[in-house]
Structures are given as structure tokens and as C-alpha cells.
Amino acid sequence: MKRPNVLFIMADQLKWSALRMYSEIGIPTPSLERLAARGVMYRNAVTPHPLCVPARTSVMTGRYPHTTGCRRNETLMPDNETHAFQIWRDAGYTTGLIGKNHCFVDLDVFDVYCDISHGGLPKGDYLGSEPETKGMEWVRPIEAINKAHEARARLNENAQSPTIAYAVTDYPLEDYGSNVVTVQTESFLERQVAGDRFGGDGSSGDKDRPFALWVSYPDPHEPREAPRHYVDMFPPDEIALPPMRRGEFDEDGGVDHLGDAPYPPSGEVSPAPEVNRVLYAMLGMDEDREEDIRNLVSVHHAMTRLVDDGIGRILDKLEELGVLEETIIVFTADHGDFMAEHNMSVKGGVFYDCLTRVPLIMSFPKGDVPIREIEESMASTLDILPTILELQGLASFEGINDGWVGPAPDTSAVDDSKTLDGHGKVRRELLRRIQGKPLPRVTSAEPRIAAFSEYGAGGPPVMMSHLEECEKPWGYKTLIETLWGREAQGRRKMVRTVEWKYVTDPMANGAGTSEMADPEDELYDLVNDPWELYNVAHDRQNAGVVSGMRRLLAEWMIETEDPEPVALPSTIGRSS
Predict the structure, then answer these.
(1) Along the 576 residues of the chain, how does pLDDT read in single tens digits?
(2) Cis link prior to 218 (omega < 30° from 0)?
(3) Can you state the percent helix, strand and coil of the chain, rounding each to 5?
(4) Are 245 and 187 in contact (CB under 8 A)?
(5) d(CA 308, CA 455)
(6) Which residues pair with 454 in a beta bridge?
(7) Measured over all CA atoms, what is the biggest interatomic distance in the chain, rounded to whole angstroms?
(8) Buried b / exposed e along 255-275 (16+ C-beta atoms within 10 A)
(9) Residue in 4, 26, 22, 31 with CA at minimum distance from that of residue 317
(10) Is the Cβ–Cβ distance between 19 and 382 less than 8 Å?
(11) Cα–Cα nearest to 57, from 390, 435, 565
């Protein structure tokens, strides 16, 4: 029996609250709403790492950055990691990646590879950047694509301020990066359904071969540039800006600005950690005009809607070709963006929801996935791979480590270089490596109360004293100048439930010296303070909450401490 297709759609740096289906400050996204209407929407999904490469490698392996070693943007998929596309290749799928990579170095697993990122077509000047396509030529003329990305190359030279840069342009719509991805995907689907093998063995006539395609939109990641037609949909004076709190990043936590604020009830607010204050010193928009902030958000919304319209076109194409019902469809983002929350834009190694919380939708009605349902419990993008494998019939995670299973499975027909066993299922020892878990509602898995994220590689902190050595005015250029140090600093960990978020770093100044919370800890009451404006980690009323969240972190760290799962016996003793 033919296995279902997989269409995995990812937007780059798209925060959850940019979508009206998630937040009152978001915009309408009709195509994503259409997709959610034929599947399950996860309201509280979290990225395991709010940075491109660590997030993407984790999604593709189902393993945390501290396990894969992919803790920085400079460390792409290691050779020894088993990932989704190896499994799908071995299972006989036509495999493809169209759009931004920033994940894979070895491209042999792809039948089709067409890389385009934020600045346009790749030049081969960074790891994982491959200028040549594989399996398909670009549908749009290369000269036209390059022309349509000229404004992005000059954007920072023409920035509105050190912290804000955006442009509204009038290139042909089909040549903007995200539309290039859409057009290429439409062509891929047409050729795939017609039996094209894209230059592989048996180049035609194989119409029953399923496909696994990663459609990786480079928007709405900066540079912030969008076609005028889309920007006009979101007039700046109609933009809903997120709430702000004066003094949030002051050294005293802004206690002078609490006034008559109803929260926190005790009035005990902790200062933001130094890493947060350093980031705000670079990205804070205190000196920027509200007009420019609104225009920036308008362009970001336009880029988001461009992606949404592309998704609608892809859904239409699947339906037109008669394969919509045969296809597992997943949509998510690698991580988020401040985009005016906390009076900043872009991202930078902190754990506010605008960076760590992401949209997540899964659809496959034919596989008994419910429709028009919303799951409120915690989820992780780490859970996407094990969920897809179950829906494909390639794996079952039930009881993977529960009890003693009796005689060891027959491995006599297994090729160790392959990911599948002799029965066409993912090998059990590889399933044990996956740290994500199948998602509830989509599968029979139980809901989970917590999700986790991390940042840093154990490096020394980047402090205000380091920032003072950078040329002023600080801004986006300073963000890039300090990038490597900030990516590597510390070992920050986040645990989030529906009600609370706790962030700590065992390497921070003063860690382990406090009876309740460490000096640099953060705690947010997500029920009463959903925009995370008040750090209440050191409010004594919350001592029990901090203790409980630390326990969840400890359990997670213990559960995931082995880079490779320890071999377990199949019986309780030699004679059993």
C-alpha cells in the first residue's frame, strides 16, 4: 500500500502572535486558517532553540541541541545524526527541499534541492549554501530573481535608524523570494504526480512513488522588504502594537514605573537578566519614531501574508492534482521574532514567547487526524518527526522503553547503513534516539504539561562592558558584531507550562547562591501577565512555583542526558 506524502512547510522567524488565529495583535491568514480547519492547531507549541540552525536540526532529528551538538548557527547537521530525510529516502520517497536550508550539509538525501534564502539565491559563501540546484532548474528566470532582491542587499545602507530597516518595493510579484518558493513547489508537485523522478533511476512512469517535501519559506526573517501590494493591506495606523512597560530593562526592573499596575499584586518585580539588558541596549527602539515602528510591523505583516498566500496556492495545487487527501501537511516556524514586543525587533538568545512560541498545525484527515480542533496542552516542534512517522506507518513509539519485551527482534536482514528494519519500519534503536514524542490528538499520545528550550554552548557571557567596546550608535550592526559570543554564552534553559515560564542559567553570575531563585532567573505568570512584562522570579509568593519548575527542568535534563541511548536488555535476566 502506498504510504502518505509528507508536505512540511516552515516559515522563517514567524512569531505566533503575528497570526490572528493565535493573537489579537495578529493579522488574518486565510490559508493557514483553512489548513487548521482540516486539522489540529497547537496553541502552545515551543521551539527547542530560538535560533535558525539549532531549531531546524532539532526538528529534522527529533533531538535537542544539547544532544546533537547543534547549539550555534555555525554547526549544521552532523554526519552521525539520523534525520527525517534519510528515513524517507530509505522508505522509497521522492525527497525535496525548496527554500531556505540552514540545516543540511550532505545533500545526497535529496532528489530535488533548490536553495533560496533571505538575500536571494545562494552564492556558496557559507556552510550549507549550495548555488547549484538539484533535480530541477528554477522556474523563474535567475536574472529576474536576482533583480528582485537588489533592495534587500542595500537595505541596511538605507536603514531608517540603527535599529530599524525596512523597504517597500515594486518588483514583479512572482520574483520575490517566497513566491519563487511557491512557484517552484507548484512545479515540483505537477512533475511528481506525473511520475517524474527528477533525474533519479526510472526517471518517469513512477506515479505511485510518494514524496516528502520541505517547503522552507525565507520570510518573514529580515531583511524587512515586501511588495507594495501586500504592504497596502496593512496600513500602519491600523496596526495593533503589543503592550509595553516603561523601565522593563532598567537595572532595578523599572520599579519606579509600576504605578498603579494591577500586576504583580505584591509589587515585587525582579530586574531583567544582564543578557536581556545587553540585547535591549542594542535593539531597544526608545529613540525610534512610532511611525517607523508601525511601518516596520506593516512590512513584517506583509511578508507574513505573502507566505500565507503561497501556502494557499500550494493547497490549491494539491487539490487540483488529486493528492490533497493523500498528504500529511505540517506548518510551523523555526522560531519567532520580537517585532515590537518588548520594544525590540529581530531576535537574540532570550526566551520570551515572541521568540520561543511558534504556530503549529497538522493535517491529515484520511489518517484519522481530527479536523477543526485546538490542542491547548504544551507541545514542541521536536515532536513533529515522531508524529509524522506514526502517521506514515513507519514507526510506533508506544511502549518503546516500557517493560521487558522478551526476545530481541530479528535483525538478521537489517542493513546497518539503512534506517529501516527488515519489515520496512524505522529500526528500534533509532527510535530510541528520538527525544520528541508523538503529539496528542493527532495520535493517541497523552497531553504533556511542559515544553523546553535552551540556548548557549557554555561560553563566557557577553556583558555591558563588552558592548561598551563596540562603536556607537549601537543597533542591528552591533547585534551582528557580537553574534558569535552571544550564540555561545552560558547554558540557559527554559521550561514552559500553560500557566508559567521559568528561565535559568547555571553559569550565570550568582547561580546557586540563592535560597529561592538565582539572581539572573526569570519567572513569568502567563495567566495574569501573558506579554511577560514582569519578572516575578524573586517574589516570595512564587517560591513554590520556582521549585516546581526547577523539578521539571531537572527531570527533563536527566531524561535527555545521554547523547546516545544506552543499550537495554530485552529480558530481565539471562534465564528469563
Answers:
(1) 689 999 999 999 999 999 999 999 999 999 999 999 999 999 999 999 999 999 999 999 999 999 999 999 999 999 999 999 999 999 999 999 999 999 999 999 999 999 999 999 998 777 777 889 999 999 999 999 999 999 998 998 889 999 999 999 999 999 999 999 999 999 999 999 999 989 855 455 567 899 999 999 999 999 999 999 999 999 999 999 999 998 999 988 877 777 667 788 787 889 999 999 999 999 999 999 999 999 999 999 999 999 999 999 999 999 999 999 999 999 999 999 999 999 999 999 999 999 999 999 999 999 999 999 999 999 999 999 999 999 999 999 987 766 555 445 444 445 567 899 999 999 988 999 999 999 999 999 999 999 999 999 999 999 999 999 999 999 999 999 999 999 999 999 999 999 999 999 988 876 666 656 788 999 999 999 999 999 999 999 999 999 999 999 999 999 999 888 888 777 788 765
(2) no
(3) 30, 15, 50
(4) no
(5) 29
(6) 493
(7) 77
(8) eeebeeeeebeeebbbbbbbb
(9) 31
(10) no
(11) 435
Which of 272, 349, 277 shows the shortest CA–CA distance to 538? 272
Cell of 515: 535560597
State the amino acid at position 156 in one-letter form.
N
